[in-house]
Structures are given as structure tokens and as C-alpha cells.
Design goal:
This protein has ten helices and eight strands. It is of the alpha/beta class and 303 residues long. It has one domain: Rossmann fold, CATH 3.40.50. The chain has an eight-stranded mixed sheet with strand order 1-2-4-3-5-6-7-8, sandwiched between helices. Helix 4 crosses helix 5. The protein is globular, with a radius of gyration of 19 Å. One of its GO terms (molecular function) is peptidase activity. This is Proline iminopeptidase. It comes from Favolaschia claudopus. Keywords: Hydrolase.
């Protein structure tokens, strides 16, 4: 790997949202040189963060690709998240918080979790500039997601299950007791590293800072989905994805094989890699191997 520091550019672009009622800006970070002649034949990798409601920070590990393969990385915080414009006044407005769309000319696209849901939807429109799609730990439908979470939840210690059940029944999902029970689940299926990497902590911390997007679109937790995402599905449209696609998840992932299987069964040009020692943060838990698989896919362009 090169030891030369990568070029980093940060900025904001205006994002026109008439329903927002105020000017909005989307924050972005570009790591690597998009205009470097040595890498001009390589598409930048645009990375879509999960949540919804976290920020780009936990995807910074993808910058490993720059040192290894000179692949530039484009990160951004979705509207309502991280460094982009926040709209707490839109809490509960399910008509406002919908899927966002990209405006990039030629690129590869990686989406993690919720970001993979966005990426799949975008790829299904068959945009001319998209060359490769990578879906990491994302569900093909929220029905499958909730079903998988309930199976994993049933394997938790009984006292933890009882706390979850009681607080959901009582409507006290913001209580410390409920959140501590959710944390037990996360330690098994969200990120098994202890301590959790600081960029992951930073990203997840944004939900506590501003829960507008997460609570409105999703709901109280991974397995208690009450927002409009409850009806989300790509199962019927997955076959419309025509670019080479790489699927990745972890053995202990919230995104169990059952939630990703429709992508594998329906996308025409697809490869699937499951990481044996990982949960939902495969790009941290098995970072070196993850980058090897991803870099090979992006460079070879084959499945």
C-alpha cells in the first residue's frame, strides 16, 4: 500500500427540497483524486451509509481501497443526518422522509444496510453511469428483515427478551431498560468488536443526537419497525438490476442470509460472500478480507 496521504475534499451542495420549508445542504467528502491521470480509468466508489439516521463516519474504512487500488471514495451524509441539514421539525412526517436519489455521472455504488436498500432501488432504475453495485448487509424486504430479527431475538437470554417485550407492550421503548436490552442484541449482531471502533460509535451516536429520521422512517429498534419502511421491498424489482453485483454479509449479521437471498436469486449478474466471523459491520470486523474481496470485484468487474 502507498504511504502517500490521500487528497481529501469536503464541501456542501445545495439540495432543493420544496417541502422542507428552508434551504438544505448535503455535506460530502471525497477521498482521493478524481482528476488524477493515473486513476482516471477507475470509477469512484460512492458509499451510502445506513441507519437511516447515522452518518458517513463508519464507512471511512473504505478508504483502504485508495491505498491498495487507487480507487477514489465519495462519502456523504444524507439529508437529516450528520453534517447535512437537519429537519427535526419533520419528526413523524412520513410523506417527507422518502428515498433519495443520486446525481453522479459514472461510478460504482456501495450501500450498507439502509444504504444498500437505497442502492438497490437506484440500480433498478438502470442508470447509465452505474458500473458495479455492492450491497452489504441489506434486506431485500423489511418483512424478511423483521422475521430474521425475531429469530435472532428469540436466542437472547430470557431476561433480555422479557425487557424488550414489556417495554414494547407498554410503549416505553425510549426507556433506559429497553435501550440496554437492545444493546445486548447489538453486541451480538450489530458489531461484535469490543470496544466498538470509534467511527462506528460516532455514526451510531447521531441517532441519539437527532432521532428524527430513524424514528420516523424505521421506529424504535431493528426488530420493532413501525415507520413507512415496514412495507419496503425490492423483491419484485431486484431482477431489474443489470450491473454486476456483489452481496456481502456476516454469519452473525442482522442481515441474515434469508433477508439477502432474493437479491441473489433475482439479480442476473451476482456474487455473494458471507464472512464467517462477522456481524453487521463486516467492513470492520474482517476489514482486511473485506477489502480484498471488494477490491478484487471492482478491479475485475466480473461475477
Amino acid at each position: 500500500m502507498s504511504s502517500t496521504p490521500s487528497k481529501v475534499v469536503e464541501g456542501e451542495v445545495e439540495f432543493i427540497v420544496p417541502a422542507a420549508g428552508k434551504p438544505c445542504k448535503t455535506w460530502y467528502k471525497i477521498i482521493g483524486d478524481l482528476n488524477d491521470n493515473a486513476t482516471s480509468t477507475r470509477c469512484p466508489l460512492v458509499a451510502l451509509h445506513g441507519g437511516p439516521g447515522v452518518n458517513h463516519a463508519y464507512l471511512l474504512s473504505l478508504s483502504d481501497l485508495i491505498a491498495a487500488h487507487s480507487i477514489p471514495l465519495i462519502l456523504y451524509d444524507q439529508l437529516g443526518n450528520g453534517n447535512s441539514t437537519h429537519l427535526p421539525e419533520k419528526m413523524g412526517d412520513t410523506e417527507f422522509w422518502t428515498e433519495q436519489h443520486l446525481r453522479v455521472e459514472e461510478y460504482d455504488l456501495l450501500g450498507h444496510s439502509w444504504g444498500g436498500m437505497l442502492g438497490a432501488r437506484h440500480a433498478a432504475t438502470q442508470p447509465a453511469g452505474l458500473k458495479h453495485l455492492i450491497i452489504v448487509s441489506s434486506p431485500a424486504s423489511m418483512d424478511l428483515w423483521v422475521e430474521a430479527q425475531n429469530i435472532l431475538r428469540a436466542k437472547l437470554p430470557q431476561d433480555v427478551q422479557d425487557k424488550l417485550d414489556t417495554n414494547e407492550k407498554d410503549g416505553t421503548t425510549e426507556s433506559e431498560e429497553y435501550q440496554s436490552a437492545v444493546a445486548v442484541f447489538y453486541a451480538r449482531h450489530l458489531c461484535t468488536l469490543d470496544p466498538m471502533p470509534e467511527p462506528v460509535q460516532e455514526a451510531l451516536g447521531w441517532i441519539a443526537k437527532d432521532s428524527t429520521v430513524y424514528l420516523t422512517m424505521n421506529g424504535p429498534s431493528e426488530f420493532y419497525v413501525t415507520g413507512p419502511l415496514k412495507e419496503w421491498s425490492m423483491v419484485e424489482d431486484a431482477h431489474k438490476i443489470r450491473v454486476p453485483t456483489l452481496l456481502m454479509n456476516g454469519r452473525y449479521d442482522e442481515a441474515q442470509d434469508s433477508v439477502m437471498a432474493p437479491f441473489f436469486n433475482r439479480i442476473p449478474y451476482v456474487k455473494w460472500v458471507t464472512f464467517a466471523e462477522s456481524s453487521h459491520m463486516v467492513h470492520w470486523e474482517e476489514r482486511e478480507r473485506f477489502m480484498e474481496v471488494l477490491g478484487s470485484f471492482l478491479l475485475d468487474g466480473e461475477v
